[in-house]
Amino acid sequence: MHAAKHGNVAAVHELLAAGADPSAEDSGAAGSAGGHTPLFYAAKHSGSAGVGRALLGAGASEELLLSAGADVDAANTKGETPLAYAAFHGQPAAAAVLLGAGASTAPRSRNDSSVAHLAAASGSRAVAALLLQAGAELDPLDDMGVTRLWVAADEAGAGKEGSAEVGVVLCQRGADLSVTDDLGHTVLMRACCGGDACLGLTTQLVEHGADVNAVTSYGSTALMFACQSGCLPAVEALLAAGADPTPADQYGGDALIAACSEGHTHLVAPLLAAGCDADASDEWGCTPAYLAAAAGDADAVARLLAAGASSSPANINGQTPLHVASQEGRDDVVEVLLGARGVSVNARDVSSYTPLYMAVSRQHTPVVARLLAARADPTIANEHGETPIHFAAQNGEEDVLGMLLAAPGAAALAAARGGTLAGTPLHFAAEHGRLGAVRALLGVDPSAGAVRDAVGRLPLDLALWKAHREVAWELLLRGDLPRHAAPLLRSLGAWGRLAWPLYPLLVSRVALTPEQWAAAVPGGLPGMGHALPAVLARSPAEARCLLRRLAPAQQCISIQSMYCLSTPAPCLVGSN
């Protein structure tokens, strides 16, 4: 058994000479079939024909073969014979040896697959031809009720190498072309699934009279399968043979929708010429124009529009071709659609998203520019109250943000609240650390820095929470701040030592109470003396509080610097 499994011809000869049983059976591994004789393994592996000949006594006398006792039709526990193994594994040399020794082509496995079915599944044209020459039945049915031609076409459609050639042989021998599975798939349909790789089989089936207008139980035709595979010659062959391009399947999709849904927009022209409806739609409301726009084929979209397709049909989600083209960044498609009659540049889907919002959310800058030039409105909010400006700020798209804010009426949105937590675009930019966007928004409206979201957070709070120190500095430096310092001090205090460089800027811009100076401002912080002029200008009492938070040396240095003194200045700490 071991010698046969590994193709060791010399060892097989020696073992047979020593009286080894050529029909001994294994027990099978756990979960697999048992009852394999050495012939099974000789039939399974390429290069094992020598083992098969040794076991069968090929080239010796009939008496030697009989005396060796090899059974060419011994079946394993699944009902498979050595010839079935050779057929399934595509081994023509082993099959020839077995057939020469009288192996039967009739036995079937437990799933009722014949040797011929297994040969069709293997994709071996040579094995299939050998079996036909040996008298194998041409159209046996397996337990699924399909023939080996159907199996060959199915395997070919799934990409199994060699199966299409097997199908051609069977077709030329007169195999039944009308067999279907329980869903109504014909041999032609299964072949059409294989596209260019199955073109030879597809054309053979058409030439031999296969029904080009057969329909599955769910309404699909061979032409639809060919369109899904994108094979132009197959589509042309089917149309030339009388295939009807107009039927729709149970989901409402016809051949044109089938082609466009898979991105095979090169089929649009021949299908329109054959009579397909340019404005058909499936049950989801998707039209050929929508699907071609998603595929990014501007020429196909233009061809469909010229054939009468609507420029703004909405699917069940309310999205138009312009939505999907903008979302996918198809600038050339957007250009075609914007030039079409009746297009709505500000169409809203069921969630109130516009094409502009789609382009901004995916960071497609050229599309954004084109939509704005066509007067797309950046102030339209989605169902959550978010505008395209919110998303541009969140993504840090400085160029896009600049274009949006320059649009009529858009600058006012820099401080407008939106989203589930009612944040401004500045909140979005601060939380995500988008320094450039923060600068752009503050440049348009500094008051946005003092706006709180639904839970009371400032943009500065979000910047500190996410440890975006540069953004926090920018907000403290340029943004409007609340009159009361308590929430800002809490935020800086929660950040610990990392926030120390921000205290001088904070105290120079926001008034603190004596209690806040004493409890919330750490003592001896570097750079605090630089805030003294601004604090003194605001309140001498606060200036005294600040000096108390400085180290003695810092106190004198700060006063000297402020008054341009060259001698030690009197210390104000403790004075009234």
Give an account of the 3D structure.
This protein has helices at residues 2-5, 9-17, 38-44, 49-56, 62-68, 82-88, 92-100, 115-122, 125-133, 148-157, 163-172, 187-192, 199-207, 222-229, 232-240, 255-261, 268-273, 288-295, 298-306, 321-327, 331-338, 355-361, 365-373, 388-395, 398-405, 425-431, 435-444, 459-465, 469-478, 486-495, 503-509, 514-520, 532-538, 540-548, 552-563. The termini are far apart. It has a domain at 1-137: Ankyrin repeat-containing domain (Serine Threonine Protein Phosphatase 5, Tetratricopeptide repeat, Alpha Horseshoe). The protein has 576 residues and is mainly alpha-helical.
Key structural traits:
576 residues, mainly alpha, Serine Threonine Protein Phosphatase 5, Tetratricopeptide repeat, 0% strand, disordered C terminus
Detail the topology: elements first, then pairings.
Layout: H1 2-5, H2 9-17, H3 38-44, H4 49-56, H5 62-68, H6 82-88, H7 92-100, H8 115-122, H9 125-133, H10 148-157, H11 163-172, H12 187-192, H13 199-207, H14 222-229, H15 232-240, H16 255-261, H17 268-273, H18 288-295, H19 298-306, H20 321-327, H21 331-338, H22 355-361, H23 365-373, H24 388-395, H25 398-405, H26 425-431, H27 435-444, H28 459-465, H29 469-478, H30 486-495, H31 503-509, H32 514-520, H33 532-538, H34 540-548, H35 552-563
Helix pairs in contact: 2-4, 3-4, 3-6, 4-7, 6-7, 6-8, 7-9, 8-9, 8-10, 9-11, 10-11, 11-13, 13-15, 14-15, 14-16, 16-18, 18-19, 18-20, 19-21, 20-21, 20-22, 21-23, 22-23, 22-24, 23-25, 24-25, 24-26, 25-27, 26-27, 26-28, 27-29, 28-29, 28-30, 33-34
